[in-house]
Amino acid sequence: EKSETLTSEQIVELTRKHNYGTWRFQKGWNPMHIVDAEGCYIVDGKGKRYLDFSAQLMCSNLGHKNQVVIDAIAKQAQQLSYAMPGYATEVRAELSKLLVEVLPAGLSKFFFTTSGTEANEAAFKIARMYTGKTKIIARYRSYHGSTTGSIAATGDPRRWAMEPGGKGPGVIFGPEVNCYKCPIRHTYPGCGIACADYLEHMIRNESDVAAVLIEPVVGTNGVLVPPDEYMPKLRKICDEYGVLLIADEVMSGWGRTGEWFAMNHWGVVPDILTTAKGITGAYVPLGLCATSGKIADFFEDHYFAHGHTYEAHPMTLAPAVAAIREMQRMDLVARAKGLEPYLRGKLEELKAKHPSVGDVRGKGLFWAVDLVKNRTTKEPFGTYSDKVAGRPLLVDQIAGKILADGVTIQAWVSHFIIAPPLIITKVQIDFGIDALDRHLSIADALVEG
Ligand code: PLP
After folding, report:
1. What pLDDT score does 384 carry?
2. Which of 26, 91, 155, 325 could form a disulfide with 140 if both were Cys (CB 3.0 to 4.6 A apart)?
């Protein structure tokens, strides 16, 4: 199909030739040409429609072509398309008021960015300025963004690429919470949440610790949901040692887990919460670093040494106001919670049927389907090292088959992430699950033992 001047093939070729494909070898990158999107579907250059089963990068929470958000963008562009961050604007005031309503109680002072990684960079600087300390304790199975500070605080192997120049300053890694494959080989609930105890051990044995950084529900690294005792315990540890708790809700926020923010599941308020993605339903790039009143008070008479040209850019804020109001109007947080048992049931069925499915886990409309070669050893079908060595991963092969059946799904190393727009219906869930069901046989055939 033709655009005005370019054919679909030319569009793909120009994109490929002049742009970097991310987290991959450039050779072999054949980007799909997308021309349209509506609701839970995207449409390619040949007019084929796909169910968007991972909401693009777990961010298009409202679905595509929401007219209220589109109108808000147009209206803001007409009225005031840019104002430097030193100014007050109506949209900034309006969004701030709305955020105080929906964020965990007490998070009331904001720094706006244009991405999740920048929100984390702001969080690290704020934590370091506030505490006068340097170290951030992060966890191995985590992703916090690709810029220098955030990638240094990223526990997963995407960090390795920046390490030849020396590790990022002041970050140390502790164990993630992962009850399927516990990194310290404990078994819940007999463990007494030993992974949190280990973080305490680290705090006690390190000097100069500013903050503990967590994804409350770990995203790309496999939708790891902590047991209910974990978060209150971690909050208590942080309070005891005067260490800040930073919750990275870039992916887990905005209704994804069936609460406005994942931290709400445990009634725990972090000192700093960062987010992005779903804040505008991904209609425009916006990130947020939200801090507590005590941190806000500190900067009344301490210099706030941070800023961006596009901080609080009106064009990023107007769609956020509209997206949050749309979430409220459609009651999408409750919808995500309400659909959880249905999706869980479907995934449990997949697990019962396919020996290659080692685990299914999640919350709300945020799930992982974890593939293993062997249910006893839990050995995955591939590793990140395979990816950087250019060895094809089985999950990518299966995702390709699923795509041909009209469903886009995110695959990462040895698992799939199911995180559809929160407006998804049961019929659409069935369509996505059926596509997975059809092609998991490829993995089943490779199961050992
Ligand atoms: N933090 C988490 C938990 C994420 O999942 C991501 C992106 O996937 C980021 C931070 C980085 O956000 P961005 O890609 O907007 O910089």
Report:
1. 92
2. 155
How far is residue 229's CA from residue 189's CA, in Å, rounded to a whole number? 10
Q: Where exactly does CATH 3.90.1150.10 map onto the chain?
A: 32-65+331-444
How many angstroms separate the alpha carbon of residue 163 from the centre of ligand 1?
19
| Residue 137 near ligand 1, beta carbon < 6 Å | no
pLDDT at residue 336, as a whole number? 98
> Does residue 218 have its Cβ closer than 6 Å to ligand 1?
no
Beta-strand relationship, 415-418 and 410-412:
antiparallel
State how far the Cα of 122 lies from the Cα of 88, in Å rounded to an integer.
20
Where helices occur in 213-277 by DSSP H, the ranges are: 230-241
CA distances from 65 to 62, 71, 294 (A): 9, 10, 40
* Ligand 1 binding pocket includes 117 (Cβ within 6 Å): yes
Say what the pLDDT of residue 162 is.
Answer: 85
Mean pLDDT by 10 residues, the chain (449 residues): 79 97 94 98 97 98 98 98 98 98 98 98 98 97 95 93 78 96 95 98 98 98 98 98 98 98 98 98 98 98 98 98 98 98 98 98 98 97 93 97 98 98 98 98 94
Residue 280 Cβ < 6 Å to ligand 1: no
CA 9 to chain centre: 32
Q: Is 0.90 topped by the overall pTM?
A: yes
User: Contact, 428 vs 262, CB < 8 A?
Assistant: no
Nearest Cα to 290, choosing from 274, 312, 302, 267? 274
State whether CATH 3.40.640.10 applies to domain 67-329: yes
Please work out whether the CB of residue 216 comes within 6 Å of at least one atom of ligand 1: no
N-terminal to C-terminal alpha carbon distance within the chain: 48
Locate tokens 């950087």: which residue? 388
* CA-wise closest residue to 109 among 123, 120, 96: 96
Closest to 98 measured CA to CA, from 257, 269, 265, 328: 328
C-alpha separations of 386 from 375, 381, 402, 414 in Å: 21, 10, 22, 11
Nearest atom (ligand 1) to Cα of 120: 10
Strand partners, 374: 379
Which class would CATH give 32-65+331-444? Answer: alpha beta
* ipTM of the complex as predicted: 0.99
